[in-house]
Amino acid sequence: MGARKRITADERKESLKKVSFAKLNNVPSSPRKMRLVVNMIRGMEVFRALGVLKYSNKEAAAKVEKLLRSAIANWEAKNERKAETGILYVTSVNVDVSTTIKRMRPAPQGRGNRIRKRSNHVTLFVDTKAVASEDTENNMESQN
C-alpha cells in the first residue's frame, strides 16, 4: 500500500472511531426489499424505530431490528451511558449491493433461464440529535 493511500485509510479509520454504527454483511435478500424497510426508519428516534420494525410484517425488518439494537449497544459502549428516549436518532442507513449468486432454471424447449439470487450489505449509524441535525444540514448544503 502506498503512503498516500495509507494516510487516507488511517484518517477514515479515525473518523469511524468517533461515530457509532453497526454493519450487516451478505444479507440474503434483495437490496430493493431491504431499502423498503430501511426507508421506514431513516432519521427516526431509535426506540420509535424499534417499535416500527417490531410490528412490520416484512422479513427484512427482523434483521434490521437486530442491527439497530447492535448499533445502540455500540453507542452505549463508546459513551459509557445508557441510551434514553429522545436522545439517539438513526442518522443514516446505507443499503449496498453485495454478491449475486446465479442459478439456472429449466425453461421450455430445452433452454435455461438465469435466476439471480441477490444479497446486500446494510450499514446503520446512530448518534445524538445535535450531531444528526448538523449532518442533515451539511447534506442539504452539498446537494444545493
Give the gist of this structure.
The chain has five helices and five strands. It is an alpha+beta fold and 144 residues long.
Description of the molecule:
With 144 residues, this protein is α+β, with helices and mostly antiparallel strands. The chain has one domain (21-143): Alpha-Beta Complex (Ribosomal Protein L22, Chain A), CATH 3.90.470. The chain contains 5 helices and 5 strands; from the N terminus they run H-E-H-H-H-E-E-E-E-H. The protein has helices at residues 3-18, 31-41, 46-54, 59-79, 129-143; strands spanning 20-27, 88-97, 101-106, 112-117, 120-128. The strands form 2 sheets. It has a 3-stranded antiparallel sheet, sandwiched between helices. It has a two-stranded antiparallel sheet with strand order 3-4. Strand 3 and strand 4 form a beta hairpin. The longest helix is centred in the middle third of the chain and has 21 residues, at 59-79. It starts with a helix and ends with a helix. The model has no long low-confidence stretch (mean pLDDT 90).
